[in-house]
Amino acid sequence: AQKVTQAQTEISVVEKEDVTLDCVYETRDTTYYLFWYKQPPSGELVFLIRRNSFDEQNEISGRYSWNFQKSTSSFNFTITASQVVDSAVYFCALSEGGTYKYIFGTGTRLKVLA
Amino acid sequence: GAGVSQTPSNKVTEKGKYVELRCDPISGHTALYWYRQSLGQGPEFLIYFQGTGAADDSGLPNDRFFAVRPEGSVSTLKIQRTERGDSAVYLCASSTGQGAMVEQFFGPGTRLTVL
């Protein structure tokens, strides 16, 4: 069965600290896609990144980076030099190749304190 | 361009009443999805449309829930005989519909409160 686990319910950091949000997934499919979304206080989910199961290359986008490891079924998200504007709930999601629906984790609430 | 819009933004109703929630997807997006997000949880899939037809409605919790997309654009989620447990934020998303790999663009949601 497919499942996404975000064990960290809430994380608080001080501005400029680095923080890593963990995501562990379960799937029997060999073709699948992983996503990260940000949900700021306004409520609208904002797409951050997509990764397919055949591409384990890590990715960096500005202060954001993602580490995908199939061996541990993890797709972790790191924010470098965090800022107050990064405060939000972050969701990891899984989509299996034969379907279109996302399976979301329960989210990690990140609080960045000034 | 305009993103996904949802109306109303908030809906308060009484137990047993009927409600309709509307979603306007991004223009040109053929795929449309409904999710439900309870407090402190991630969104849960309800139904997926490709064009006018419901391609996957496996997430609808029971037959009180129904959704339509008659012209392949706007969609309406309908809930009959509402129950207090239906209280949640209902999210709509759309995508270009080119497969599981495409990102879904989400609307701001409708917060439904059943008293």
Could you describe the 3D structure shown?
With 114 residues, chain A is mainly beta. Chain A has no helices and 12 strands. Chain B is mainly β and 115 residues long. Helix content of chain B is 0%, strand content 48%. Chain B contains no helices and 11 strands. Chain B has strands at 5-7, 10-13, 19-24, 31-37, 44-50, 53-56, 65-68, 75-79, 88-95, 105-106, 110-114. In chain B, strands 2, 4, 5, 6, 9, 10 and 11 form a 7-stranded mixed β-sheet that branches. The model of chain B has no long low-confidence stretch (mean pLDDT 93). At the A-B interface, strand 5, strand 6, strand 10 and strand 11 of A face strand 4, strand 5, strand 9 and strand 10 of B.
Task: Provide a short characterization of the protein structure.
Chain A has 114 residues and is mostly beta strands. Chain A has no helices and twelve strands. The model of chain B has no long low-confidence stretch (mean pLDDT 93).
Topology:
The complex is a heterodimer of chains A (114) and B (115).
Chain A: E1 3-5, E2 10-14, E3 19-21, E4 24-26, E5 32-39, E6 46-52, E7 59-61, E8 64-69, E9 74-79, E10 88-96, E11 103-104, E12 108-113
Parallel strand pairs in A: 2-12
Antiparallel strand pairs in A: 1-4, 3-9, 5-6, 5-10, 7-8, 8-9, 10-11, 10-12
Chain B: E1 5-7, E2 10-13, E3 19-24, E4 31-37, E5 44-50, E6 53-56, E7 65-68, E8 75-79, E9 88-95, E10 105-106, E11 110-114
Parallel strand pairs in B: 2-11
Antiparallel strand pairs in B: 1-3, 3-8, 4-5, 4-9, 5-6, 7-8, 9-10, 9-11
